[in-house]
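Good morning C.,

I know you're traveling, so I'll keep this short. The sequence:
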Amino acid sequence: MNAVVEIAALEKTSPQLQARIAGGLYLIVIVGGIFAEVLVRGRLVVHADAAATAHNIMAHPMLYRWGFVVELFYCVCNVPVTVIFYNLFKVVNRNLALMMVILDLVVNTIESISLLFHFAPLLLLQGGHYLSAFTAEQLQAASYVSIELFEHGFAICLVFFGFDCLVMAYLIYRSTFLPRILGAMLAIEGVGYLVNSFSLFLVPALQPRIFPYFAVTAIAEIALCLWLLVMGVNAERWRERAVAAKAFRA
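The tokens, ready to paste straight into the viewer:
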């Protein structure tokens, strides 16, 4: 009787629906990240040229603002994604699923705070009487440094995200309700995040050469996102893991 009640309760959790919601939100995160990084900063920020970068931002202030808003919005989307991933993977290993949640929260916190540096150039370049003591060149330089600080803050959050990918990769590999190949791909991407960030911190001249190889590994997140959105999870195997996890805790 207890087993019947247990299965009925698990039915209400609808892992398939949760997986598809997570996939949809994850897609927003990925598209938002591409928009902010490639179509906004990639278009407006000129490497090692503060004056040209300032000119581009002031010529396209709304585009720059949209980059900020989109990135802030996808940080919000990360929260329900994290909750859903915990619900899905706690049946595999509750402690590791909790570790994944903590790493996700650290990632989101660092990225959200770093966004202040993304927005700062608008405050500096649009001026005000309180900035009259600074020359235009000084404000342009401060704006460029602010963008650099944002990029380094983002690299810091990617260190934590790299470890997050490794934890999730293990959970996927052990889950049985998602393809193991997704876990293997995500593990490679996690290592890529770590190599990319630490190369920026330790050997910055080398990082631009490493980035193209690292960028290819992002296909893992895209594959996971689309799999969750289109295929979901194997609900029967998820419920088997859920019942086994409940029995083990009892």
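Safe travels,
E.
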